[in-house]
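QA checklist item 7 of 12: single-chain prediction sanity check.
[x] sequence parsed
[x] length recorded as 736
[x] structure emitted
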Amino acid sequence: MPARANDRADADTAGAAVLPAAVATAVTAGATTAQSAPSRLVLPRSAYPETHADALVEQVFGQRVADPFRWLEADPRSQPQVAGWMARQNALSADYLAKLPQRDRFAARIRSLFDFERYGLPRKAGTRYFYTRNSGLQNQSALWMRKGFAGPQRLLIDPNAWSADGSLAMAQWEPSPSGKFVAFAEQEAGSDWRTLRVVEVASGRLLEERVRWANDTEIAWIGDEGFLYSRFPEPKAGEDPRAPRFDKAVWFHRVGSGQEQDEKVYATPDHPEWSHKAQVTTDGRWALIVSEVSTDRRNAVHLIQLEGRRAGQWKAEPLVPGIIDHWRLVAGIGNRLWFLTDRGAANYHLVSLDLAQPRDGWKVVVPERGNVLEGVRMIGDRFLLSYLKDGQSVAVMADRKGRPGKAITLNGIGTASGFGGRPGDTETFYQFTSFNMPPAIYRMDLRSGEVTPFAVPKAGFDPADYSVEQRVFTSKDGTKVPLYVVRKRVLAQAGKPLPTLLYGYGGFDISLTPSYSPVRMAWLEAGGAFALANIRGGGEFGKAWHEAGRREKKQNSFDDFIAAGEYLIAQGITAEGGLAVQGSSNGGLLVGAVVNQRPDLFAAANPDVGVMDMLRFDRFTSGRFWVDDYGRPDREEDWRTLRSYSPYHNIVEGRDYPAVLVTTGENDDRVVPAHSFKYVAALQAAQIGDRPHLLRVEPRAGHGAGKPVDKVIASGADVLAFLAYWTGLEKDAARQ
């Protein structure tokens, strides 16, 4: 690692330090003030809470880099100085947002759009069917059960009764193969930490044991005996809760016993940076340990024979020893295993191995094709293949030999998911959703091919009133990039430019496909347009698309997003001054970077739970896992790339910035809120115009999941009202 000299010298001694623009403002003087935006809701720099700036400069790879707001990295839950600063920022943003003219109207409409009965995909175990259900405005979806498909439904687990404020959620659940038990995870205040519990289905009795410190885990049942799960060591007293975690291991918990009796199944003390998850084959004969070293899709696989295993004995044999390619278990029957993998197939193929004759090697069952094979399920006596075609999901049936059968026809542009089941099943369930269609669940009879509705919601609007288009635009280097555009059909036909919300992600091989959001629908109902850009860095077009937008090529993601905004203006979908941008997590980084690079292009921006300090992201919680996508800050070549676009370090003095509302959660232990804190402090210190640059911190909330419905409604209304005000979005009644 390079030496980092913590130099507390005054700014005058910083020499040629490479400073964020905010540092130049806070520590030095003389920058030019950008022209203020003409609005009664502007905020001059004097309106922001005072933020102390340290004269902290580090020497890194021959450059002096200032970090005046590093003190904001401390946890506000234990550091009063940071907590006080956060409270003052929240008070300012709350006062500002309450004054926005459409805030209450958006809140009321979002609430009504949430108020419809919705179901999760059913899972069958034994003769029982399990599924989640929300009556509409419940804080959390509850787990229900039916004995037999047509049997009466019974409430099994209701997380709404767990806490007064709705902040305790059920993060995941898994029935045992016979349906005798259900193991589920409690999540408190949005944290990534989980406590696993078990309920006995027949009686509804909640067992006493609690399995703590699970994190990013599977729940893999071994019959009704117990389950495999993953956890980190229990944090030591006084340990920084935001420190990176190591030594993740797989454990076995036996139903009816305390956690102190759990058995360690697999660990790699020689590689404490590796993390492990467990799976069990559908016939219960084998357990698989999947080992990863980052968020990159590559892993090793070890195999444990469960048949004939003695209590306490866990012998793991290597099946795929190197962390080189991506391997995902599809099914296991007897000695034959099927995997989805990108070894030798960038767009993935389905392969199998006979463990009785391992020297015969891997056999290709379904070869690689032009579209990405995103998922495979073995259901009944056939495979269900899910492909990504032009950013949309397409499902195809195939027999056990991989010979393709008929495609599952879907109506319109949307996303199909689910298709769960086991060998021998005669049915499967899947979900279909789109921008203008709330998730509907269907049951497919695999013998006849007949599809019948299981749960089709009534959402209070007509999907036919909205047009969903898929377009293609040209990026800076000539690359063709897909773009979804959603508008009210009558407004699209009128051809008038509309205030437009552009959303993107572009990272970690993750695909953004059409999906429904009540918050987004409120924007569309108000007369705005919504656009989703499938920029490079995502997984929409396979490994090459991902590779083209990460590490030293990360700028391609930003260029694509900027080009999407330019296309929307050039095509008359939106007007200059009418474009807002939004993204979460890696998408928050995206928004921060493009706002720095093209502040003139955007009227407003909402970077949500974003990674904003790219020189220190690997020092907190999950950050160390992201180095394969971003690069390593301790490696000079990577550091220079990260430095070139880091949102915190590249705010440009003297330019008129858009209105920016930064949102994060106080308990976010994936992307710690320090990223947002430091970025906002830098924005507010810089001379970049009088449009507001605000911070909204959600108390008792994490990286987005598990929020009570009132918090989702309030945050959605605040964000939409902010973006609407600065893009000129009028009430729908005034538009028609």
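[x] summary fact logged: The chain has a mean pLDDT of 91.
[ ] second reviewer sign-off
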